[in-house]
Amino acid sequence: MNYVLETKDLTIKFGGHTAVDHVTVQIPDKKFTSIIGPNGAGKTTFFNLLSGQLSPTEGSIYFKGNEITKKSATDRTRLGIGRSFQITNVFPNLTVLENVRLAVQSQANVRYQMIKHFLHYKKFEEKAFTILERVLLDDKANHIAANLAHGEKRKLEIAMLLALETEILLLDEPTAGMSLEEVPAIIDVIKQIKAEEDRTIVLIEHKMDMIMDLSDEVLVLFHGELIAKGTPDEIVENETVQSAYLGGMYDEQLA
Amino acid sequence: MILKSMSKSNLIYLGVAVILLILPFILTGRSVQFMITQIFIFAIFAMSYDLLLGYTGIISFGHAMFFGIGAYTTAIFMDRYDASFGALLVAILVAVLFAAIVSFIVGVLTLRLKSHFYAMLTLAFAGLFLVAAEKWRSLTQGNDGFTFKVPEFLRDSTTIYIVSLVCLVLIFFGLRRMTQSPFGRVLVAIRENEERTISLGFKVLHYKVLVSVVSGIVASFAGVLYMLSLRFVNTSVFATDVTIDVLLMTIIGGVGTLVGPILGAALIELAHHWISGLANVHWIFERWIILYGTVYILVVIFFPLGLVGTIRSKLSNGSKQKIPSKKAG
Questions:
Q1: How many CB atoms within 10 Å of residue B5?
Q2: pTM
C-alpha cells in the first residue's frame, strides 16, 4: 500500500507532560483514516504536529517519503496538507465569501499582486461561491463570519479547507458542537469527498457511527500513545481498545 | 454592483479633490493655505500608518523616524546642493531608499515575533535617530536645526499647496488600490487571524515586511513634503509627539479606512491650531497633550471604529436589510 504521510516516533512534551508519545503511523494514500481516543488523548496535538502548528520534541514526519518535520505550516499547506480546526478559526470581520475567497486565492497562487483590484478575479469569487453551495452555506455568503451560528462556522471552516484543494484533508471534529439537524449535511459533504477517491482524509471524531460508516482504517490514541490500529471492525473487537476507550464511550452515548 | 458603488465613492473623492484644488484661488491667505497644506502632508503620513495599524494590525511606536528620515534627507540635500531641482529628486530617492532599508531591517528583525517586539524596536530606533539628529551637529546642527532654500518654483505657497494635494490624491488612490488588491486582502486576513492566514498557505512574514516597507516609504515621502512647505528642520520631526499625533489621526479618523486618517489629520491639525490660540485663555490649553489623551480614551471607548468606521458601519447596517444576500454565482 502507498503511504502519503508517515510519522516515526513522533513525540511532543509540554513541560513534564507527554501529549504525544512515540507515535509511529502510516496514513494510506487516498484512504479514509480516523483517529479516535478519549478527550485529552492527544488527537488534536497530533494534528498540530502534522500540519506544522507545533514542532515535535522528537521524531519525524514524512510526506510522500520526504521529511517535512522542519517545514513551516505555510509550506506544509502548499505541499498539500490542509486542515480544519476544532475550535472554529475563521476571519471574523470578513464576509463568508471573503473567507473562502482567500483560500481560493491561495490555491490559485495569487499572492503578491498589488495592482489589480481583487474584483477582477471573478473566478475566485465564483469558485468560492460554488464551494459554499456545496456545504450549504451559499445563502449566508454576504454575512459577516462573526455573526454566523456555531454550526455555520464549522461549515465555513470546511469550505475554506475544500477551497485549498489539498491532497490531504485533516478534519478535526468537523461536527463538534453542531445541532443534530446540521450534522447530516456535513457528513454528506465528507462522504462526497470520500466517494471521489482522489484525496486522503484523516478525521478526528467522537461520533462512533460516523467512524464505523466512513473509515477504511482507525487509529486509537490513548494518553498520547497509539494503542491500536485496524479496520473499524477490528477496532470494535480489540480488547485493549474496549477496556481503554470504547466501553466508556458507548456507555456515554447510551446515557 | 460593488464596482458601481466604488466608482461612485471615487467620484465623491475626486469631487472633493477638485474643490480643494480650486480653494487656494479663493482663499489667498498664506497662513490658511499653509495650514491646509500641513493637513495634506499629515494625511499622507497618517495613511502610511493606517497601512500598518488598520490593515495589517501592526503597532509601531516609532513611525516618526520615517517622517524624520524624509525630512532630514531633504533638508540636508537642499542645504548642501544649492536647492536645485535635481538635488531635490536625488533627495527624494535617497530618503525613500533609506526609509525602505530601515523599515526592512526593523521588519525582518521583529515581525516574525509577537507584535509588541515591533512596537518596541520601532520605539528604540526612533529614539536612536532622535539622538543622532541631536548629536551629529556637523550634519544636523543639533536641536537648533537650520533653515534652507527649496527650488525656486516651490517657494510659492499656492504651488506647494497644489503639489501636496496632488501627491495626497495620487497616494490615496494608489494605496486604496493596493488595499483592495489580492495582496491587500491578505493583509486584512493577517489582521483578522494571523494563524489562519498561515494555515491557508500565505507567508505572513513576507506580507508584513512588504507592507512595513511601503508604509516607511510613504511616511518618508510625507517628511519630504513637510520640509518643502516648512523650509526649516530641527529634531522635533523625530519626536515621539509626531508618532502620537499620527496614531491619534488614524484612530480618531478610523483605522483600516484610509479616508479616516485624512479626516483625522484635518481634525488634529485644526485642533492644534485652535487650541494653541486658546493658550492665553487658560493654561490648560498649553497642555494640549492632556486634552488629546482624554479624546483618545473617549474615542477608543465610544467609537472604536473611529469617525469613518462608525459612519460606515451605521450605513451598512441600514442597507443590509434591503440588499438580498444572494447575488453572486
A1: 10
A2: 0.87
